[in-house]
C-alpha cells in the first residue's frame, strides 16, 4: 500500500495539472496577532501541497497550468488560547492570463494537523473549494486546445456546486453555481477563445498560412460581435480581451482587418488608446 501511494504521488509530481503555484497573503493585524501568523503560513503550504500532489485529471496529466492565489485573511476562529477550528478569508485565484476569480466571505474548517486529500466522490468544504477552481482552470485550458474540450471539467465544477448545496452549503456555492453556468453556457466566448488560441498556434508554427489565419480571426471577430449583440459589454469577454488586447490588435493589424480594431475601440474602452494607435 505504501509503495502504491508513493507511485501515485510520484506520477502527480512528474505529470502535474498545475505548474508554478504562487501563494501570497495579507491579514488584518487588528484581528490576527503577529504571533499567530504561522497558522496562516501553514494553511498556505497545505493548499500549495494539495495542488502539487493531487491528480485532478487522469486524461490530461501534463497541462502545467501556472496558478497564483492571493489570500486576504480576516479572522482565525479560536476555541481557546491556542486551539483554532476555522479560518475566514477572501481569495483571488488566477492562471495569470485570462482566467481570474474572486471569492469573498469564505470560511474553512481548519485546525492544527488538518490534512486534505483529493476525493471527487466526497464533499469537503476545504478540498472541494479548491477542486472547483482546479476544474475551472483545467476546463479553460482545454477549451484553448480544442473547441468545447473543457466541457466535462466545467461539469465537474457544477457537480461540486450541486453537492455542496445538497449538503446545506448554499450561500457561496449558489453564487459559484451561477458563475460556472455562465462560463459553460457562454458558447460564443468559448468559440472566440479557441479561435484566438488557434491563431496564436498558427503564428508560432513553421508554416504560416495567412489565408487560414485571416479566416480564423474573422470567425473570432464574429464570435465577439455575437456576444455584444446578445449580452452587450459582457464582463467575461472583456476580461479575456483585456488579457490579450495587444496580441489581438497585432493580429488584426497584421491581417489588415481594420474593422476588428474599430470594433475593439468601441467595445473595450479600457484599452481604447492602444487600439487607436494601430489606426494612425
Oligomer: single chain
Q: What is the CA–CA distance across the termini? A: 67 Å
Q: H/E series, N to C?
A: HEHEEEHHHHHHHHH
Low-confidence stretches: 1-14
Helix-strand category = alpha+beta
How would you sum up this structure, described in words?
The chain is of the alpha+beta class and 280 residues long. It has two domains: 129 residues, no CATH class; 89 residues. It has eleven helices and four strands; from the N terminus they run αβαβββααααααααα. It has a four-stranded mixed β-sheet. It is elongated.
SSE map:
Layout lengths: L1 H13 L3 E10 L9 H17 L11 E14 L5 E11 L5 E10 L17 H17 L7 H16 L4 H15 L1 H17 L6 H22 L3 H9 L1 H10 L3 H10 L4 H6 L3
Helix pairs in contact: 3-4, 4-5, 6-7
Summarize the structure.
The chain has 280 residues and is an alpha+beta fold. Helices cover 54% and strands 16% of the residues.
Characteristic terms for this protein:
54% helix; 280 residues; alpha+beta
